[in-house]
Amino acid sequence: MTSLPRPTRRDALRLGAGGSALGALALTAGCGSEPAAGDARALRIAQKSEPTGLDPHLESGLDGMNVLINIFDTLTMRDSSNELVPRLATSWEAVDEHRWRFHLREGVTFHNGESFDAASVKFSIERLIDPATESTIIELRAVDHVEIVDEHTVDIVMADPDPVIPEKVSLFGGVMLPPGYLEDVGDEEFAAQPVGTGPFRFVSWRKAQLLRLEANAEHWNGRPAFDELHFTAMPNPASALAGIQSDVVDMVSALDPEAALQLEGYKDVALDKYPGIRMYFVVLDTEHEILRDERVRRALNHAVDVPLLIEAVLNDSGREAATIVPQEAFGYVPDIPPPERDPDLARELLAEAGHADGIELRFTSSNKEQLVCEALAGMLGDVGVTLDLELLEPGTFAERLESDDPSSLGSMYLTGSTGWTLDGGATLQSYIRSDRRRSRIRSDHADALMDTIEQTIDPDTRLEALQEMQQWLHDEAPFLFLYQADLDFATNGEITWEPNVNGTLAMETAR
């Protein structure tokens, strides 16, 4: 294979802009928002997709949660400073390793007037973990049941210890539902007319067009500044650009770097960049006949110029990673440096490992990451590593990630992981322990460290294990460490709002 040239920003723009005219035309097909009633002030948001449904226990996608987090409150939350703060729970503590106690906010009501209390928490969490619900949300898999201590106090009782339950109830696992309303209307009607305690109430949803919410004037934390909140799915960045310029939308969320590059310099479009926590890395099969040699794995890391990748392909929308733990997460070790980017050292290590004439490896990824994959192929090709690239449709790639056949992903695959709990164990959990489907590591030492990280309540013991794990990853190089992606938003310049690093669209603070 001939080495691929390193892409420039001009290349990224050229490749990312394909189909723009068609996308802009799509805006005229009824996808846009509509005026708010009377003199109401509406905040109109475009994102790549819409929810699959409005039952929060059946929605595990971030675009869906972006809507639902405005209708429903959670027990805890991350603020814009990324601190874990009270929401429907005012405080919490570990009673022992199998019991977390939450003290609940008093005087809160659901949109239908039903009171929020300990019974609401018991119902919500036990419905989520009930196999009959068929939820794909797995964060509370270690929970056995919930016990009511009094009207405003509950104990979440664990089947197995879990040190990050307070973090896990800050988003998907912590959404609170009204038990009385659900009993009255049933699951199907609840999904069609959802009722929460959140800052906005559900109004209507014309699928593939507009999902409309209105401000909850009785919200316990005060009325939002915007009277209405509108969500529209616009998967094509050209449509989103046209939407802002034609005053159809006010904000476009979570743009890909190449999409953001298309929007630079356009009149009436402001681009805002925020730190994000999605980690991108290449999983290496450490049992592969070539990759089992630590020198080869280290060589791959030395060969890739990640700062250049971030500049040329990502439009400077990311931070170089030394590990797969986000910088904002509990347990991150800032003293561990990224691998030195040195092609000559990479060639030396490959020669020492008996591969002076080069190697060929099968590389799999979603085709959404084509530009990154082509850049990696070019950089690795410069040191004698030929990649047999297999770029798959996102759905097919996701199926292979969940497959029990590791060979379907080749000897190395590119992935992204968002540890939204902001705990170091979140991104490690699926890729380290030898019994996990996505892991390509077989190490008793790593398994033991993961057991400590996942099961020990004491934060100091966990911190020590997380630090040791990251040093082990640095030394063993079972991954090709790449970058931590930023969050790119486009607005009309009239919105004041700052997300946390999760990037979720909790819009009650927007002005």
Describe this protein's structure.
The chain is an alpha+beta fold and 511 residues long. Among the domains are: 74-178, Dipeptide-binding Protein, domain 1; 277-485, Dipeptide-binding Protein, Domain 3 (Dipeptide-binding Protein, domain 3, Roll), CATH 3.10.105. The protein is built from 16 helices and 19 strands. The chain has helices at residues 9-16, 20-26, 62-71, 118-129, 165-168, 179-192, 237-245, 257-263, 294-303, 306-312, 343-352, 370-381, 394-401, 424-428, 444-455, 459-476, and strands at residues 42-47, 76-78, 84-86, 89-96, 99-104, 143-150, 153-158, 200-206, 210-215, 228-233, 251-252, 270-274, 278-284, 318-320, 359-366, 385-392, 412-418, 479-485, 487-491. The strands form four sheets. It has a seven-stranded mixed β-sheet with strand order 8-9-10-1-11-19-12, with helices on both faces. A hairpin with a 3-residue loop joins strand 8 (200-206) and strand 9. Helix 2 (20-26) crosses helix 7 (237-245). The protein starts with 8 loop residues before the first helix and ends in a 20-residue tail after the last strand.
